[in-house]
Amino acid sequence: MKTLPMALAGHRLRILCLGAHADDIEIGAGGTILSLIAGGVKLEVHWCVMSATAERAAETRRSAAAFLEGAVASTVEVCAFEDSYFPSQSREIKAFMLTLRDRVEPDVIFTHSRLDAHQDHRELNKLTTNVFRDHFVLEYEIPKWDGDITQRNAYVPLPSGVIDRKIDLLMEHFATQRSKDWFHADVFRGIARMRGMECRSPSLFAEAFTVRKMALA
Fold first, then answer.
1. Is the pTM of this model over 0.90?
2. Most buried pick, 20, 65, 131, 171, via CB within 10 A?
3. Rounded distance, CA 192 to CA 204, Å?
């Protein structure tokens, strides 16, 4: 399978990471972010979580600091929209997203999948693609009880050791989630192993995304 780098070592890459809840970004794109930094990309990151209690907001900030260690610039923003009710808050969330568009100029946006079974995830995807119409958007996946893992069309092979680092950081920083049976090292490793097989990753592990639209120059 032919691979193309998202950015080369020494090049600047500005990314916007959007997550409905604390831990979403790390689960969906954490390995990719760690890989970019380890590969010498000059990463500038705006990390935005839309809903979190005070406890989970603290987890978010500690986790983001760990995942973004080595980035040349980073901003972490945590909002207070009501968990599980994003569709009924669509107008307010869109207003916030419009202000975000005025403040950041990303080369790449990571957001939830349009086909995600969680209503908050789907709503954030719809608003991302509505507000950021001219951007390269990678939709990430989140395992859950709903069983909504589906076919993807873009892969990031993870360098050796990155999946271990990703899982270690998830387990270290999200104590509030450890009691949930889906929040388990075997789940995260299993999905990454399957995606690694699909793209024939040399390390055997990968993260997978959906790209809805892209322009080739």
1. yes
2. 20
3. 8
Q: Calculate the dihedral angle through the C-alpha atoms of 148, 153, 159, 160, rounding to the nearest 10 degrees.
A: 50
Q: The domain containing residue 183 runs over which residues?
A: 12-209
Cβ atoms within 10 Å, residue 96:
17
216: in domain: no
On whether residue 30 sits in a domain, the answer given is: yes
CATH number, position 27? 3.40.50.10320
Does 1 have pLDDT greater than 80?
no
pLDDT at residue 3, rounded to an integer: 81
Strand ranges inside the chain, DSSP E: 12-21, 42-51, 73-78, 108-112, 136-140, 154-157, 206-209
Alpha-carbon distance values, 210 to 100, 156, 215 (Å): 23, 11, 15
Residue 42 — left, alpha, or beta (φ > 0 → left; ψ -120 to 50 → alpha)? beta
Is 5 among the domain residues?
A: no
- 121 and 20 Cβ atoms separated by less than 8 Å: yes
Report if residue 215 sits inside a domain. no
